[in-house]
Amino acid sequence: MILIKNKKPIIKITDNFAQYLEAHSRHFQLPLDYEDLLRFQDSLPVYDKDDEPTLWETVIYPTQDQIILEKALIEIYVTLLAGGDKSIIEHLSIDRIDYCAFANSRPFRIRVINKFNDNRDHFYVKKADASRIYGLEFEGLLSPNRVNYMVDHSTLIEEHIIGIPGDHFIEHNLSQKTVNPVRLCKEFVKFNERCFTSLIGDMRSYNYVVTVTPDVEEDQYRVRPIDFDQFCHEGKVQVYLPQFFPENQKIVQLCMDLLNPETVRQYQREERNIINRRFLYSKQQVKSLVRCMSKDKLAADENILQLRTELAEFHKTKSFLKCKNMGEIIKENMITLLNL
């Protein structure tokens, strides 16, 4: 079992990484900066549907500031999800702006409402963090998931990832008769494998969501990361394996009860094969991303030393001991796991 006690510092986007983002259409000129949203004058606590307090608070701005911010936020939403089609702007309004000081990126959650049908959607404005954005890129390239996002210097815009929060699913859904436990366990094994291959850390139950899709006979499950702040940062190898977090132990125990070791290995091989195919499809972009990482400092020297040592022991190969940075470590990890 592992615990992460300290918050990771925000890592600035270097010119090197900014060029990569520009080349792959991730950089946009936004009508506001993250800092603009910090100028709220008051806030109110946000409660969930059971009237329990959450980590979010609704923020309130001076009237004139509110008007300017809402106009800019609608423009951002239209650019993010509708390719900048301004003809739909008149149908939209900002219903609420929430703020969470607890999370690493201190996000603002923007709720957008369609005035014609009252349909609501969300997106997020966050403080741009290089390691988080690297994680978003690897998730889009090597997993079945792709997160729509935009970057403008110190500001990060992310779409809302739909799903049931992992902690809520484990507490309220896991024991329901409608859940197919074997299919869920299979997906968790594959999720564990994806996180380890891409070194996406800190997948405690509240840092991922579970999506449920009705199939011909029974539901299918997909576990998706929603927090990439600990991507390639910590030194402990267990941080990159969701199975070791105490918050996930109910579902880990279910896997141990229902899946024998050979079945687990089968699911791992299946997922590695699929990741390998995705890598081959986007090989040049992955290589470009790894080259960027190798020039950036995403972790303290002691974390790099610890992780390369533990991975060398985990994989039983000394090749990791030559790695000098997180870019080289993730490259070696993919080579070893995917037989590249």
> In angstroms, what is the radius of gyration?
21 Å
Portion in strands: 15-25%
Structural shape = globular
Label the structural class.
Answer: alpha+beta
| Helix and strand element order | HHEEHEEEHEEEHHEEHHHHH
Major β-sheet annotation: 7 strands, antiparallel
Query: Fraction of residues in helices?
Result: 40-55%
Mean pLDDT: 94
Total tally of structural domains: 2
Task: List the uncertain runs.
Answer: none
Q: What's the count of strands?
A: 10
How many individual helices? 11
Describe the strand arrangement of the main beta sheet, using strand numbers: 1-2-3-4-5-7-6
Distance between the termini: 31 Å
Kindly describe this structure.
This protein has two domains: 15-159, no CATH class; 164-338. The chain has 340 residues and is an alpha+beta fold. It is globular and about 60 Å long. It has a seven-stranded antiparallel sheet with strand order 1-2-3-4-5-7-6. A three-stranded antiparallel sheet has the order 8-9-10. The protein has eleven helices and ten strands.
